[in-house]
Structure formats: C-alpha cells, structure tokens
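for the recovery benchmark. tokens below, seq after
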C-alpha cells in the first residue's frame, strides 16, 4: 500500500516552484505547500487502500486571493518508482472551476524501488548466484503469473523481483540476501490474500514449487509443501480416502489458509485446518530453519495456528493429521428475493440447532441489473434424507426456486461445492455473532443488498452467514492463536468491481461496504476473520486476534525482532 508520509510533490514537468510535503497517519493524509505563486496552502483528506487521495485544500496566493476546493488524486507509478498523481480538482466560490492536473513526486529519499533499482544487475545476479530457484525480473516470462495478487484491487503493487524458491535453503539464502541489500521480502503462497499481502515492491518469494504432498497411509499424517494449493492436496488425499479441513477453491494456498485458521465446510465436524496441524517447518528472519509442534518451539507453533500468514517466518512445510473420509450429502437451495427475510430468519434457527455434521453458508446477493437471490449452500456428513429433514423448516417457510439435495461421495461433494470467483477487484469485511442475528440485523443486510450501488463485476455484492461453531468451538480460545471460538455465524459482507471501472464506482462500492459494516456493528461483534483480510479495519489487532493479540506480539518480538516480515497489518 502506498504511504505518502514524507513524500514531496510538485506540478508535473518541474512546476512553478510550489512544492507540497505530504504526511500520513493511517488513512489520514495532509500536506503544506508553498513557493511559486502560493504564499501558503494546506490540504487534508483521506487515502484509500488503493492509494487514491480525497483532499480538501485552501491556499493564499501572492495576490492575496484566498482559494479553496477539493481534489481526487489517483496515483500511478513511473518506471523509476516515483509517483505521479492524476489530480481532478474543483475550486469553489468566486474562483469556481474544475480540471485535471498532474503532480509528480520530487525525489527526497531512496524509495523502495530506487533501493531495489540500486541493487542493480550485479545485486540480483548476486542473489541468483546463491539460490537454485529461478529469479524473475519485470518482463520475464512468468513474472506476472507468479507475483500478481488475486485481488486486482492491488494490481498496481508490483515487486522488483520474484524468486521461485526451489527449497527451504533458497528461502534462507534469499532472506539473508534481502536483509543485506535492504530489500523488503514477502512470501507468496497461493496469492489469494484479500488485501494483497503476498506482494510488495521488493522481493517476492514465490513458494508455488514447494508443492509436494506426501501421505503416510499407516499414520494418516499428510505433509504438504508450504506453497501447495488446495486442488493439489485434494488430489493426493483422494487417492487415500483421507481428509482434513480445506476450502473449496483450487488455487488457495495452504500457507495462507492454515496460518490464519482455515475454515471449511466440514469445520463444524472436524475443526479448523489449523486444528489438524501437527507440525510445521519455518525459515526464520535470521535464515535459520526450525520445526515447531506441541513439543518443539510450542509458542511458535501456537502462533502458526491462526495468527495469520506472513508474520513469523516462511513456512516451508506443514504436517496434518488426516482422518478417514466420511459419507456426505450436499444442498443448494435458492429463493427469490421477496422471501429473503423469511428464509434468513428460519435458516438461522435451523443452523443454531443443526448437528455438527451439517454446515451451510446462507447468502443474500445481487449482481448489477438483476434481482437479489437468497441461497443456502451446504454439506452434511450424513444421508440426503437427513439433510432434507434438517432443511424442512426453510423449505416450508417459502417456496424455493431451486432445490438440489443429493447424496454424494465426499469427493463428489468437494467438486460440487468447488467455487471460483469471477475475479477482478473486491473487498470483504466481516463481523462475528455468537447467536442468531436479530430481525433488525437481518433487515440491515437485506436492505443494504437492495441499495447496492452496482458495478460491472458479475460477482456483484452481498452478505453471507457462514455457520461456524461445532468442533471449532470445542477448542479453548487461548489454546491456539485463532481466537473466534465462541462464534455461531461469521457475517461476511462483500462487493466486487472491475479494475478499470471509474473511481466513482469504486468509491461508491467501498462506501457501501463501509456503511454496511458500520451499521452491522449494532448487531454483531467487532471480531473479524484474519483470513478474510480487511485492509480498512481500524482496530485490526483486537478484531483479528482478540485476547491472543499480546501473546502474538511477544512471539513476533522473539522470532522476528527486526520486523523483517512486515506489512500494514503485521503483528
Ligand atoms: C477464492 C477464495 C476462496 C477462499 N476460500 C476460503 C475458505 O474456504 N476458507 C477460508 O478459511 N479462507 C478462504 N479464503 C481466504 C484464504 O484463506 C486467505 O485469502 C489466505 O490467506 C490465502 O492464502 P494464500 O496462500 O492463497 O494467499 P497469499 O496471498 O499467498 O498469502 C496470504 C498471507 O499468508 C502469507 N503466506 C502464504 N504462504 C505462506 C507460507 N508458506 N509461510 C508464511 N507465510 C505465508 C503471505 O505472505 C500473506 O501474508 C478464500 C480466499 C479466496 C480468494
């Protein structure tokens, strides 16, 4: 994410001598400017996660005129790493006018890209010399694919280089090299972070090739490489009819998933992905490799179960305790929009009383130009007949437009529930609730979906109640770093747009989501799921980590005292 603090800007092309010095604290941005025709000027405003500034300004000219207005400044990066701001401005009052100007950054201190630029070919060659994996620079074949954030909201964040590590030794050497060169370094697993946390402007360690999966059928222990993706792991488990909780998107990486907890459609029966973790190997900030488990480096093991990816080191492998695969059935039921309140009300109650074998996502959503839809998508570790009985109150509450309830093998169920999003840019915000939402809470969700401002992304916007609880809540809050052990529903609110849509569309969508998240504060708690990473959260430490925040900070100080692994919401 762009930080404007300390940056200087002037009119593009050298300007008339007016220079503004910017400051930033969180999303608050302000600047003073003087020089040229301006005796004194100030701007104050806010910065969006994508770096767009919304500012109000006042200035006194040498002529004595006092001028005020507002601007929307969209950043672009020049090849040398400096920023250019495309500024749409509007003046108020006697001087009313509007237009577009460009501001360019004046070099003050070496930016990250200048530092990485100063690494030069010899520097990158120095890294190449000590690693076995392939180092890619911008323009190289595969550079984009191995560094692009899944969420295109952050597509402008591009690294200086990507190293596809060949093994744990590469990770250690690359971290050592990056520290020496002063280049920021970040691990990339599946690249699916909602907040683009696996890309930076320095060196990305692409773990994609660490994707071995070894299943020991005699112990049901499954060891997977730190960059393995869901599909690869499912395929290996399927051969042995063994299972541990995983999500249903092919390309989500195991690293991000398990380190932040990992919630699956079977978590009410089997716990979180991190609850099945028995050990993990990490390369630490000093380049050393450690194994951690309940008995070895237990504090680090504790933190790796739900504290969030990218904080303590680079995990190069994970070992899970799998179990025999159970039988399953699945449901997909849709209702027309007028039934939203009835279905939500009844389904909350159905899920409150449901056995742990049944889990469902209850959704309300809408794509542009279409009516809203109510959906229940779930899996039951039992026969379809039982599932139909469990759903009977909801089926009776309102006539569904589609009902698909069927027996499936576990693997057929995984394929059936498999989902990919349309991609593009998106934002997700979450809250938690330990009990069903009140009628007003539900109505707030439904009304918001009605009022969604729209975008061209076919995923549209919506809200979902993910049923948690069950085996997730059997684990005490402080036993692992994952703190949400008293939750019945994760309340997830999302919106999506296309990356090239107008800034007003993006702003409209983010404002809509912000307002909905704020309004739901009356009905749900401030707790938030670290893996549904929300770069706009204010008190993210408390929201993500709850009572485990202080202990996580201690573990961070112990294993990464120099904060080599750093990002905007790093512990
Ligand atoms: C389409 C989609 C479906 C999803 N489904 C689910 C779901 O069913 N259940 C659920 O709980 N979540 C789900 N998520 C959220 C998902 O768990 C998080 O986005 C997760 O962080 C993605 O992991 P990743 O490795 O793909 O992401 P990345 O962007 O590569 O990594 C995320 C963070 O983890 C760090 N990291 C990744 N690998 C490692 C490693 N080996 N060692 C150290 N740090 C590492 C990165 O540095 C970054 O900080 C989904 C997300 C998407 C986009």
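predicted aa per position
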């Amino acid at each position: 994410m762009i930080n404007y603090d300390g940056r200087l800007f002037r009119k593009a092309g050298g300007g008339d001598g007016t220079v503004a010095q910017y400051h930033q604290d969180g999303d608050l941005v302000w600047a003073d400017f003087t020089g040229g025709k301006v005796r004194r000027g100030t701007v104050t405003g806010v910065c969006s996660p994508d770096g767009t500034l919304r500012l109000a300004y006042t200035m006194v000219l040498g002529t004595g005129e006092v001028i005020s207005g507002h601007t929307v400044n969209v950043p672009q990066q020049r090849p040398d790493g400096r920023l250019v701001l495309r500024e749409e401005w509007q003046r108020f009052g006697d001087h009313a006018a509007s237009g577009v100007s460009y501001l360019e950054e004046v070099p003050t201190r070496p930016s990250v890209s200048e530092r990485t630029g100063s690494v030069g070919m010899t520097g990158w060659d120095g890294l190449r010399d000590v690693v076995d994996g392939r180092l890619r620079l911008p323009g190289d074949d595969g550079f984009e694919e191995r560094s692009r954030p899944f969420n295109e909201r952050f597509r402008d964040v591009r690294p200086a280089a990507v190293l596809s590590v060949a093994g744990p030794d590469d990770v250690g050497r690359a971290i050592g090299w990056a520290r020496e060169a002063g280049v920021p370094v970040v691990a990339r697993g599946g690249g699916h972070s909602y907040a683009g946390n696996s890309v930076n402007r320095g060196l990305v360690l692409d773990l994609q090739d660490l994707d071995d999966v070894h299943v020991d059928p005699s112990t049901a222990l499954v060891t997977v490489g730190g960059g393995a993706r869901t599909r690869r792991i499912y395929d290996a488990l399927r051969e042995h009819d063994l299972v541990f909780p995983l999500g249903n998107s092919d390309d989500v990486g195991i690293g991000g998933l398990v380190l932040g907890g990992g919630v699956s459609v079977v978590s009410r029966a089997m716990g979180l992905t991190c609850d099945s973790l028995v050990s993990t190997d990490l390369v630490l900030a000093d380049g050393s490799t450690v194994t951690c488990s309940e008995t070895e480096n237990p504090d680090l093991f504790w933190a790796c179960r739900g504290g969030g990816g990218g904080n303590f080191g680079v995990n190069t492998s994970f070992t899970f305790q799998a179990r025999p695969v159970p039988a399953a059935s699945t449901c997909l039921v849709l209702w027309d929009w007028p039934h939203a309140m009835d279905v939500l009300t009844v389904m909350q109650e159905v899920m409150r009383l449901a056995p742990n074998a049944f889990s469902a996502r209850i959704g309300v959503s809408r794509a542009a130009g279409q009516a809203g839809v109510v959906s229940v998508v779930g899996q039951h570790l039992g026969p379809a007949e039982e599932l139909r009985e469990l759903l009977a109150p909801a089926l009776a509450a309102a006539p569904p437009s589609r009902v698909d309830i069927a027996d499936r093998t576990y693997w057929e169920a995984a394929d059936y529930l498999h989902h990919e999003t349309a991609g593009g840019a998106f934002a997700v915000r979450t809250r938690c609730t330990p009990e069903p939402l009140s009628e007003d809470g539900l109505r707030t969700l439904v009304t918001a979906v009605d009022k969604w401002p729209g975008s061209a992304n076919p995923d549209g916007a919506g809200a979902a109640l993910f049923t948690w609880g069950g085996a997730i809540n059997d684990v005490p809050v402080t036993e692992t770093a994952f703190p949400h052990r008293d939750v019945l529903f994760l309340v997830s609110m999302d919106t999506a747009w296309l990356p090239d849509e107008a800034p007003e569309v993006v702003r409209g969508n983010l404002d809509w989501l912000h307002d909905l998240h704020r309004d739901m504060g009356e009905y749900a708690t401030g707790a938030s799921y670290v893996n549904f990473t929300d770069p706009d959260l204010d008190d993210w430490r408390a929201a993500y980590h709850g009572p485990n925040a202080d202990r996580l900070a201690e573990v961070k100080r112990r294993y990464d005292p120099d904060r080599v692994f750093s990002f905007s919401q790093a512990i």
